């Protein structure tokens, strides 16, 4: 199993109160799974994704990533794990405006040690080709369309060859046709064996995943 969440709980302070958002989430993912997470606004989908991405430590429960217990691990180790094994794709792309496509896609390698420059260059070029942006290598974000920006963000996610890709509304800012092209890319990544968790509000988008789970009342339900 690549991901094993057991009884994961989390809440936030609101004034004097602690408001529980996740109240015992269980989720098991095998390598190569493609799961869509749905749920009403405010049910905790982003919170769950942040926990899966090791950006947030859950208040309770356990998280095993590829059999490794993450609870109690120092921040330094979590950061290393995150950069090596997990990639994020967001609705807002989060590209750096002064860098070109190649430089944006190469960003994750700033935090990774042990790869030669030629290996990094090969992985960056390969990821850019895979998302179909071979002709846009020297363009900056302001010179690209919304769909192209999301392709750059996906190439940046793919380049380090992560085990787990986490996507938060990756088609939320795109028109239906461009969103469809981006979903085709997710499909292709999944066919290549990447494990994907994708949060979406759109049932049609969710139908592209192999499995659908819904967050309701703090826990996950199949379907
Ligand atoms: N850092 C925070 N501090 C306090 N409350 C928070 C924080 N982050 C999220 N919340 C609250 O926790 C609840 C769940 O938020 P979360 O963003 O995980 O939900 P969501 O399902 O992703 O929502 P949406 O679909 O609207 O993006 C919300 O009520 C939100 O206001």
From TrEMBL:
Keywords: ATP-binding, Nucleotide-binding, Transport
Domain ABC transporter: start-end pairs: 3-223
GO molecular function: ATP binding; ATP hydrolysis activity; transmembrane transporter activity
GO cellular component: membrane protein complex; plasma membrane
Coiled coil ranges: none
Superkingdom of origin organism: Bacteria
InterPro entries referenced in this protein's UniProt entry, alphabetically: AAA+_ATPase, ABC_transporter-like_ATP-bd, ABC_transporter-like_CS, ABC_transpr_LolD-like, MacB-like_ATP-bd, P-loop_NTPase
Protein family: Belongs to the ABC transporter superfamily. Macrolide exporter (TC 3.A.1.122) family.
Protein name: Putative ABC transport system ATP-binding protein
Species, as recorded: Desulfofustis glycolicus DSM 9705
